[in-house]
Amino acid sequence: MITSLKLKRKLQNTREIEEIVSSMKAFASFNVQTAKKSLSNLRIYQNTIEDSFGDIITLFPHLIKESPSDRKRTIFVVFLSQEGLCGFFNEDILNFFEKIPHEDSITIVMGEKGAQEAKSRKIACKHYLSSTSNVEAIEINAIELSSYLIEIFEKEHFDKITLIHAELEIGSYKIVEKRVLPPDFSKLHKKSLQKEPLLYLKPEDILHSLIKEYLHISIYRAFIESVASENQVRLNAMVHASNTIKEREKLLTQELNVHRQQEITDELLEIINTYRSMTK
């Protein structure tokens, strides 16, 4: 038979779990809000770079003429979660990735928890790299990954770098595939320019600098989008868990009150019965 003492312990344990969940919810919410602030500026900056691409290739179309090549070697970078408690986040992204043809390519998986899921699926990966679930630590990760990708892209003669990552939406995310090297110039070319810009550098040097900056900002944004989406899923899970715990706490409190009332009633009856037996 359950007693008030056992119910008190259950209630105390439930409240302790609620405190842990509340802390995790606050941390996830902080990361989501911080990421949102960064994303608004990042998207504007990336659009500015793409607009600059449009200017330079419209003025100098010969810069993007590619030499004939049968090679279509691709580096895929798949951004997964660094930590757990994010539902089907990793599964969704890997399901998306597995539908993409990736012959003659290598895959780099970002995120330790996501790497576990990729390994369980026996997805062939060249490297599993650590990521982050903290927005403030992204810049270092982005710089290191950019340098690493440029190195293997040039040394091993790859043709494309494609990023696969979640992109934050209101309360959720979508999964995107984005080619970042070389940029998809066909989508950036302009029919004409209202005003030709003044150039103080060689067009080739400008284009090279833009491509380098575009790669870095695309990777940085992919990190931000992925971390924001991961934390949004975790936040949703913690909100659901918090609501469930509060409901559980409410039921335990009601049950405890009933037991207390029953115990008080039993004690009063015992006292009354004892008194009656003594006064006979």
Overview of the molecule:
This protein is of the alpha/beta class and 280 residues long. 61% of the residues lie in helices and 12% in strands. It is built from five helices and five strands; from the N terminus they run αβαβαβαββα. The chain has a five-stranded mixed sheet, sandwiched between helices. Strand 1 (74-79), helix 2 and strand 2 (105-110) form a beta-alpha-beta unit. It is elongated and about 115 Å long. The mean pLDDT is 88.
Estimated structural class = alpha/beta
Q: What does the main sheet amount to?
A: 5 strands, mixed
Quantity of strands, as a count: 5
What level of helicity do the residues show?
Answer: 55-70%
Sheet with the most strands: spatial strand order: 3-2-1-4-5
Radius of gyration: 29 Å
- Element string (H = helix, E = strand): HEHEHEHEEH
Low-confidence stretches: none
* Count of DSSP H/I helices: 5
**What is the 3D shape?**
elongated
Strand content: 5-15%
Q: Report mean pLDDT, rounded to a whole number.
A: 88
State the end-to-end distance.
33 Å
